[in-house]
Write a structure and sequence with these properties.
homodimer, mainly alpha, three-stranded parallel sheet, globular
Chain lengths: 281, 281
């Protein structure tokens, strides 16, 4: 029931789905109860009662915690039940969790999300999905009801969508860092960087990443909210870990890590990850 | 009369302009003579005979060479004549050359170009311009006839367009490097990177840079032509020089320099600058 879990739940409720919800801090689920959701006392209770369980947590450790063990999703889903895992995690974790579900005769699919909370509310999310094809087909209408504008299928290997998601988040933080450097260079060189940004985003870089994040950098406004810098740093760590295990050099990710680390030391962990620009100051 | 000079000249000829052309290697101008241009024996002869002189050369040294001295453009333009300088150069060079033109009662404006040869032929170039406003107004119809789809004005400071151009080229090489790392990571992790690229360029990164250069990286095809890697490296040097003089840290440009240097050592200087991807192999 975080920044993305909440609007996705609201979207599903709006479409008439009966939802049993759980959040570690029960108070955060309260507004959803008023919209028709039912509060569960535990993850175990959600898993026992549901055909499909959506999960979205902030890291691999939290996902393992709610999935594994006697009280976890895998052990308590009914046979044939489906765990739709939306968290951004290491691809190897998806492979391991799928195996545990298979032992319990249930299913695990990867469905990490591209999109910020405002996109979730506008039903403009993109889901990257991978895993057993028939299970993906079962899940797709629910993803649509949850706010998907696009569902991108990456095949049977359950970790493929997680790789695609890490590659995508890496692209975003790389784009933000480059824009931060360019705008800082332009400002310090005395040009009208708002005009430069307008030119760039009407020509070669006419895309949402450059328009939205560029405007934040131009205004030097990185208020808390959106996507927290500390979570961005977590994703960069996953990218570096995946790079290492795949044997792919990721020098730009190393650079992003360095800049984000510097921001953490400036106490910017809860600011939007666009605050990576502050490492240049 | 290089990759961009040739199609721009052809565009101007098509629009009915009388052109006197000069190229260090006269043979390269030959096809243009057949299309109606007149060959000059020297830069001096071009300057003496013309109201407006376009120049496009590969670096600051070459521009200084054709502009300064007794045989240069500045000393030989008639009073009130205009030098439209399209090269990608250090901003400080533009300021210096404008001053020399002013001593000779002629004008110098900066008009660096965003666009590859195929964009020039399709009349889809973007010119970034700066300098004296009335002179810019005089030059604009010629830029349009030369193939401008967009003319972006950065004000009276003559070096502003050069700063904007360096910031833009920096953005492109940063985007290429990030895509190269992500596609390599995706490939080595076993995902369908063509599908990933399709997803990315239909959502957050739906823009020409990611579509065009991404396709080159997916195909691992960096044939000579387009924009030579050695020229990209030259631009990155300019970005780093500008960063240093403006007091703006450019860690991503330093990284790009390192990767491009590695490519130069692999003998890829004449390949397209997308070949920066080869530094990861």
């Amino acid at each position: 029931m975080g920044n993305l879990g909440t609007p996705i739940t609201e979207n599903l409720l709006q479409k008439g789905h009966a939802l049993l919800v759980y959040n570690r801090t029960a108070a955060k689920a309260q507004p959803l109860l008023e919209k028709g959701a039912t509060l569960a006392a535990s993850v175990k209770q959600v898993a026992e009662a549901s055909d499909m369980v959506f999960s979205i947590v902030s890291d691999d450790g939290a996902l393992n915690q709610i999935t594994l063990g006697a009280d976890g999703i895998a052990a308590n889903l009914k046979p044939g039940g489906v765990h739709i895992s939306m968290s951004t995690i290491l691809p190897a974790t998806a492979t391991q969790l799928q195996a545990v579900h298979q032992q319990h005769k249930s299913h695990y699919i990867a469905a990490p999300i591209m999109g910020r909370p405002e996109a979730a509310r506008a039903r403009k999310l993109n889901f990257l999905v991978s895993g057993e094809a028939p299970v993906i087909q079962l899940a797709k209408p629910l993803l649509t009801d949850g706010g998907a504008a696009g569902i991108w299928e990456f095949g049977n290997e359950v970790n493929a969508a997680n790789v695609a998601k890490l590659c995508s988040n890496f692209m975003i933080i790389s784009a933000i860092e480059a824009m931060a450097e360019a705008i800082n260079l332009g400002n310090k060189s005395g040009i009208d960087t708002a005009k430069w940004h307008a030119m760039l985003t009407q020509t070669l870089f006419a895309s949402p990443v450059y328009i939205n994040y560029g405007n934040m950098i131009l205004k030097d406004a990185y208020a808390p909210g959106g996507f927290a810098l500390r979570l961005g740093l977590k994703d960069v760590h996953l990218v570096l870990q995946q790079g290492e295990s795949a044997g792919a050099p990721m020098p730009t990710a190393e650079l992003a890590k360095k800049q984000l680390d510097a921001c953490m030391q400036q106490g910017l962990g809860e600011h939007d990850w666009t605050a990576i620009a502050m490492a240049l100051k």
